[in-house]
């Protein structure tokens, strides 16, 4: 059996002594480079600048707490410092449920548990759970099926493909370009091609045409936040795909994190990104001067449009 390999996006952050190394996803696919982070303030800046996304930001949060714990070991004020770190991360991005994670870490601290051991143990379980998610999705894919995916799920899509290969199933992929950051084109297409899969990039508006033509067998996306009722927040454009998939009777699967404290999708605050990210490309304005831009980074897909939630078990 072919050995399973992992995309650099599967675990894009690491900690070595007093430095966190963060894969700079904004440089892919042209260059594979890592940002050196020395403190939690720099970590928060990396998150706000979208140098790493979604899962990478979650990893960065945990490694930043580890770094702070080591820097403040033996000090009586450690809990006070940890609360300050939690507040900084909670303020970075509204749609990602960082408070759920920081409350968990502060809860461990309040119980006087060994924080390093707890965090490292949690990360080990997290890694195993992501592998199991990919394995579970692969079980739903048949031979010679074509998957449509949107944005990027941090290394899980090529892993799903590898599990399909191990089952003797051939699989190919349509990847939306995912404007305006082009995560699908720059990240997902890059990692799938690197893993040896047939991958075709399509513009975001092409999904309906592909589905109408019978070219898509399943849609698989990720989620940045899962509400208690099963609604999910994911990259803007996900809702449109879910509606189309329902219309054409195509299964729609979502790789989900643990549920947040949001009761429904209506309780999830949608992040509105700076308009220049939409109106400019590589630092050059591409829209007419004076035109306004509106870039909600996410939309909400209601639970009833989702065929199956593939949960991360922690």
Give an overview of the whole structure.
- With 314 residues, this protein is an alpha/beta fold.
- Helix content is 38%, strand content 19%.
- The strands form 5 sheets. A 6-stranded parallel beta sheet has the order 6-5-4-7-10-16, sandwiched between helices. Strands 1-2-3 form a 3-stranded antiparallel beta sheet.
- α2 (54-71) runs antiparallel to α3 (78-90) and α2 (54-71) runs antiparallel to α5 (115-138).
- It is globular.
Looking at the structure, the CATH topology of the largest domain is Rossmann fold
Shape designation: globular
Please write the string of helix (H) and strand (E) elements: EEEHHHHHEHEHEHEEEHEEHEEEEE
Uncertain regions: pLDDT < 50 for 5+ in a row? none
The CATH superfamily label of the largest domain reads: Translation initiation factor eif-2b, domain 2
Helical proportion? Answer: 25-40%
Backbone CA Rg: 20 Å
- What structural class do helix, strand and pairing data support? alpha/beta
Tally of domains: 2
The count of strands amounts to: 16
Q: Average pLDDT, to the nearest integer?
A: 95
**CATH architecture call of the largest domain:** 3-Layer(aba) Sandwich
| Major beta-sheet overview | 6 strands, parallel
**Given this structure, which CATH class of the largest domain is correct?**
Alpha Beta
Number of helices: 10
Strand content range: 15-25%
Numbering strands along the chain, what is their spatial order in the largest sheet? 6-5-4-7-10-16
């Amino acid at each position: 059996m072919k050995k399973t390999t992992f995309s650099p996006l599967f675990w894009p952050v690491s900690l070595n002594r007093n430095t966190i190394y963060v894969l700079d996803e904004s440089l892919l696919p042209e260059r594979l480079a890592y940002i050196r982070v020395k403190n939690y303030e720099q970590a928060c800046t990396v998150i706000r600048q979208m140098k790493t996304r979604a899962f990478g930001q979650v990893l960065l949060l945990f490694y930043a707490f580890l770094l702070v714990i080591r820097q403040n070991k033996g000090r009586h004020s450690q809990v006070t410092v940890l609360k300050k770190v939690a507040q900084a991360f909670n303020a970075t991005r509204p749609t990602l449920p960082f408070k759920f994670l920081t409350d968990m870490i502060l809860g461990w601290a309040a119980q006087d548990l060994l924080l390093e051991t707890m965090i490292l143990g949690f990360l080990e379980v997290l890694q195993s759970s992501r592998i199991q998610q990919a394995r579970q999705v692969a079980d739903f894919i048949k031979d010679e099926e074509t998957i449509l995916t949107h944005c990027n799920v941090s290394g899980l899509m090529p892993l799903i493909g590898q599990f399909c290969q191990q089952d003797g199933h051939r699989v190919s992929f349509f990847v939306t370009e995912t404007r305006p950051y082009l995560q699908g084109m720059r990240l997902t297409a890059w990692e799938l091609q690197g893993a040896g899969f047939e991958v075709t990039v399509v513009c975001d508006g092409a999904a309906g045409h592909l589905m109408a033509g019978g070219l898509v067998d399943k849609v698989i996306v990720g989620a940045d936040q899962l509400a208690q009722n099963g609604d999910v927040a994911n990259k803007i454009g996900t809702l449109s795909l879910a509606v189309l998939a329902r219309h054409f009777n195509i299964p729609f699967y979502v790789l989900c994190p643990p549920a947040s404290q949001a009761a429904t999708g209506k309780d999830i605050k949608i992040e509105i990104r700076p308009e220049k990210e939409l109106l400019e490309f590589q630092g050059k304005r591409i829209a007419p001067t004076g035109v306004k831009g509106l870039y909600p980074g996410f939309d909400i897909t209601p639970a009833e449009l989702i065929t199956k939630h593939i949960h991360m078990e922690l």
